[in-house]
Amino acid sequence: MGSFEVSEIKIAGMQLTRLNVTMDARDGVARFHPLKAQLYGGQYSGDISLDMRPATPRLSLNENLSGINMAALMKDFLDSERLAGRGTLTAKLPATGRNGDQLLRHCAAPSPPILPMARCKASTFGTRSHRPNRCCNSAHSLVVRTPDVPHSKPSRRRL
Description:
The chain is α+β, with helices and mostly antiparallel strands and about 160 residues long. It has one domain (about 1-159). Helix content is about 20%, strand content about 50%. Strands 1, 2, 3, 4, 5, 6, 7, 8 and 9 form a 9-stranded antiparallel beta sheet that branches.
């Protein structure tokens, strides 16, 4: 068991500060918990475990982003300007695979999509739409990398 802190780091295009990691690896199971960081004016907390004991390893991601500046996050992470405002995202993502690519592909597979397992707090987002459910629809299209459904009268307003 051990822990470390990183003052600044860029992961998958995202800028994190004050990353704190506690890890424990024994008997074929690695767990990173708690994970904490500050990013985009909000907080990240997570719990990641990798179980190497079964024939096909299992990954479990339990992630939470709160008070995040969504425009900045989406720009850095997905090069998108579809969402704006502050928001909270949570996701519990299981995956299986024999290597990193298989594990990530299983987590990011369009079927089943990630966003139904994740929760958008639509009331805190501003989108380019006048319909509250556009937040999750736009976020889902970003995650599965499909075109967003066009809508009329785009506007940027707080919902």
